[in-house]
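Narrative of accomplishments. A recurring question from our advisory board has been how the design workflow behaves on a single, concrete structure rather than in aggregate. To address it, we present the structure tokens for one chain from the evaluation set, followed by the sequence designed for it. No filtering or post-editing was applied between the two.
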């Protein structure tokens, strides 16, 4: 129904709409092919959810607002992808990329203005082109092998470092024990020497004789020789020397 004096009526629905773009491998075009920041070609398929926020602007400011939205969205995605490495688009940082693209699209549509509110941008798929997919997979496998080798090397280094630290701790403990033993022995020897010196200071002659006899006992302790006086009658045998044969005979006589 047309109300006079209006000749035509145009209506814009304000329900949420959906737009998909990119995905050249599936669509058979090159719209989804983009160059990443590390000079890799990626095929990106993404989706927009938007609503008409201003029906007047949506209907009369642009001739084909949805076509304009598609072009702005593709341009924004190419801009963001071109600043980032391919790995971010494939796995690592899709959500951040989608949020940045949404901001750029909204800013571009507001500049017209187009009366469109962007509710969400989601990256549905991102992959290398079919022509280079096998080579790209080889590169990915090589990078994974590199990460694995680096991890194994780090584990080996940590193992050897732990062993070296343990060996170092053991050597330090042994050195400390050896030092304590040597110090204790030296302290004991010094104490013994001081005690001997004290006795020597009290009775020099007696101490000198005792030291002399103790030294002879150590030197001749394993000897079988018998020391007698020069006249040869055996009456001057020193009784404090170890005389095995004399003792043996003395034992037999008893």
């Amino acid at each position: 129904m047309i109300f006079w004096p209006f000749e035509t009526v145009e209506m814009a629905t304000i329900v949420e709409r959906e737009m998909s773009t990119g995905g050249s491998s599936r669509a058979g075009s090159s719209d989804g092919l983009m160059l990443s920041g590390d000079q890799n070609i990626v095929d990106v398929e993404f989706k927009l959810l938007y609503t008409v926020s201003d029906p007047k602007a949506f209907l009369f400011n642009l001739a084909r607002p949805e076509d304009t939205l598609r072009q702005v969205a593709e341009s924004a995605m190419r801009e963001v992808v071109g600043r980032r490495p391919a790995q971010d688009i494939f796995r690592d940082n899709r959500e951040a990329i989608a949020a940045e693209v949404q901001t750029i699209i909204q800013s571009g549509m507001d500049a017209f203005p187009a009366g469109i509110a962007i509710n969400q941008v989601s990256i549905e798929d991102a992959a290398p082109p079919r022509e280079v997919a096998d080579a790209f997979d080889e590169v990915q496998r090589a990078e994974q092998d590199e990460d694995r080798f680096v991890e194994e090397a780090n584990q080996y280094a940590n193992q050897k470092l732990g062993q070296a630290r343990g060996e170092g701790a053991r050597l330090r403990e042994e050195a400390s024990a050896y030092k304590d033993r040597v110090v204790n022995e030296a302290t004991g020897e010094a104490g013994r020497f001081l005690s001997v010196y004290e006795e020597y200071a009290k009775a020099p002659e007696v101490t000198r004789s005792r030291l002399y006899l103790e030294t002879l006992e150590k030197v001749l302790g394993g000897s079988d020789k018998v020391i007698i006086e020069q006249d040869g009658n055996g009456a001057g045998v020193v009784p404090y020397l170890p005389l095995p044969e004399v003792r043996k005979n003395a034992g037999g006589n008893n």
